[in-house]
Design goal:
Layout lengths: L1 H20 L3 E4 L5 E6 L3 E11 L3 E15 L2 E14 L4 E11 L2 E10 L2 E2 L4 E10 L6 E2 L9 E10 L7 E8 H5 L11 H11 L4 E7 L2 E7 L3 E10 L2 E14 L3 E5 L5 E9 L2 E4 L7 H7 L2 E7 L5 E8 L2 E9 L8 E4 L5 E6 L4 E3 L7 E6 L2 E6 L2 E2 L1 E2 L14
Antiparallel strand pairs: 1-2, 2-3, 3-4, 4-5, 5-9, 6-7, 6-8, 6-11, 7-9, 9-10, 11-12, 13-14, 14-15, 15-16, 16-17, 17-18, 18-19, 20-21, 20-29, 21-22, 22-23, 22-24, 24-25, 26-27, 27-28
Length: 397
C-alpha cells in the first residue's frame, strides 16, 4: 500500500513540474473570458482572446508561432500570428489586412495559410508572417514576444447576391489593449430600462438627407442594430448605394449610432405617452413625407429643349403633367402630356412612388433642410401657389 501511495505522489509531482515547464499563465479580458497563454520555444497559444467584435465579425487571437522558411535569399526564422474570424452576418465576407504596426512602426505582412473568405455564420483561421518592413527584403523578428505589440486594421468586404449592395468596413485591433482587458464588445441599448423606446424604434423608418439634394438616407432599428440605407437620383432615375449595420445605444434623450469610422451619429428623440419622435428638423417618417408633399409643385429643365413639369399631391393621389417646346416648330408651339393616365393613388417606396400613374417612376422625394421635397429625376421641384394644374393651354414658350 505504501509503494502505491509513493508512486501516486511521484506521478502527481511530475505532472505539476511539466505544467510549470510549459510556463502557462492566465488572465481575464474586459469581456470576462478567461484567456490562457501556453508558451513554448516556437509557439504561444491563446484561448478566447477577443481582438475585435462588432455586429458583422468577431476576430480572436489564436497563436504566435515560429517557422523556418527558405527564401531565395536564404533561410529565416519567421514569426507568424494566427487569427480566427467569425462571420456573424447572413452573407459572405472576404477580408484582407490593411495596415499593421509594431510600436507604431509599419510592418511587413505576408499571408501564410488559412482562408480569406467565409460564408454566412461560419468561422475560419488565417495566419500571417509579421516581419520588419525593410528593403529590399524583409527582416524576421527576433522573438515571438515582439508580436505582443501588434496592432492593425482588417478590411472586411461584404458580398451580397445583389452586387449593388456590396460594401466594405474597416475593423481595427490592438493586441496590447486586448491583453490589458481594454477590448469592449459591441454596445447595445439597455433593454431593461428602454424597452418601450426600443420597441417603438423597431416599428418605423426615418428618412433624412444623405449629404446632397439628390441623395436620400433611411434609418431603421432592431433591438441591437441600426441600419442605414442610401439611394441617389440622377438622369437614369434611382439607384441603391449601400446598406450598413451599426451599433447603437440610447439614454433618456439621445440615440447614439456608432458609424464605420468610429464617429457618433447623435439623434435627439422624445418619448411621451407611448409616442416616439426623432429630431423633426432632420428625420421624417413616411407620414411626415406625405404630409410635406401635399400641394402643387413645379420644375423647369433644359435638357434637349425647354420643359416644364407640374405635380399635384392630394392625400395619397398624385397627378402630373408637362409640356415641352416643339423642336423646329412654330414660335410658342409645344407638346403637352397629361390627362388620362397621369393620375393615380400611390404608396411611398424608398425615395419614390409606387403608382399606376404613367411615369410614376420619374418622380422622387428627398429631405432637404428638414422638409420633404419633390424631385423630377435629379431636378429639385419647388412649391407653387396655384389652385389647379395649368393644363394643355396654360403654357408659354
Amino acid at each position: 500500500m505504501k509503494r502505491i501511495l509513493v508512486v501516486f505522489l511521484a506521478l502527481t509531482i511530475s505532472l505539476l513540474s511539466c505544467a510549470c515547464e510549459n510556463a502557462t499563465s492566465s488572465q481575464t479580458t474586459g469581456n470576462d473570458i478567461q484567456v490562457t497563454e501556453a508558451k513554448k520555444d516556437d509557439i504561444i497559444e491563446f484561448d478566447h482572446l477577443i481582438l475585435a467584435d462588432d455586429v458583422n465579425v468577431r476576430i480572436e487571437l489564436v497563436n504566435f508561432y515560429a517557422e523556418d522558411v527558405n527564401w531565395s535569399t536564404g533561410a529565416q526564422n519567421e514569426k507568424i500570428v494566427t487569427f480566427q474570424f467569425q462571420n456573424k452576418t447572413d452573407h459572405n465576407i472576404l477580408w484582407s489586412n490593411e495596415n499593421f504596426y509594431l510600436n507604431n512602426e509599419r510592418t511587413f505582412v505576408m499571408f501564410n495559410s488559412g482562408t480569406t473568405s467565409l460564408e454566412a455564420g461560419r468561422s475560419g483561421k488565417a495566419s500571417m508572417i509579421i516581419a520588419e518592413d525593410t528593403q529590399p527584403e524583409h527582416t524576421a523578428l527576433k522573438s515571438l514576444d515582439e508580436l505582443y505589440d501588434l496592432e492593425g486594421t482588417f478590411s472586411i468586404f461584404h458580398k451580397y447576391e445583389d452586387s449593388q449592395k456590396n460594401q466594405s468596413e474597416n475593423v481595427t485591433f490592438s493586441i496590447p489593449k486586448a491583453m490589458n482587458g481594454e477590448v469592449t464588445e459591441i454596445a447595445t441599448p439597455d433593454a431593461e430600462k428602454y424597452g418601450d423606446v426600443i420597441h417603438a424604434l423597431t416599428e418605423n423608418t426615418w428618412y433624412f438627407n444623405g449629404g446632397a439634394d439628390t441623395i436620400l438616407d433611411a434609418i431603421t432599428f432592431t433591438d441591437s442594430v441600426a441600419t442605414i440605407s442610401q439611394v441617389y437620383f440622377d438622369g437614369n432615375r434611382k439607384h441603391e448605394n449601400g446598406v450598413n449595420d451599426f451599433a447603437y445605444t440610447l439614454d433618456d434623450t439621445i440615440i447614439t449610432v456608432t458609424l464605420e469610422d468610429g464617429s457618433p451619429l447623435s439623434i435627439p428623440y422624445t418619448y411621451e405617452e407611448g409616442v416616439l419622435t426623432l429630431d423633426t428638423e432632420t428625420y421624417l417618417t413616411q407620414e411626415d413625407i406625405i404630409a410635406g408633399l401635399q400641394g402643387f409643385w413645379t420644375v423647369e429643365t433644359r435638357f434637349l429643349g425647354r420643359h416644364v413639369y407640374y405635380a399635384h399631391i392630394e392625400g395619397n393621389v398624385i397627378t402630373t403633367e408637362g409640356a415641352s417646346s416643339a423642336l423646329n416648330g412654330a414660335p410658342g408651339s409645344y407638346y403637352w402630356s397629361g390627362g388620362d393616365g397621369y393620375t393615380g393613388s400611390f404608396q411611398l417606396n424608398f425615395g419614390g412612388f409606387d403608382s399606376e400613374m404613367q411615369h410614376a417612376e420619374d418622380w422622387f422625394f428627398n429631405v432637404i433642410n428638414g422638409k420633404a421635397v419633390l424631385l423630377y429625376f435629379d431636378s429639385v421641384c419647388t412649391p407653387v401657389n396655384i389652385t389647379k394644374l395649368p393644363g394643355q393651354y396654360g403654357y408659354s414658350f
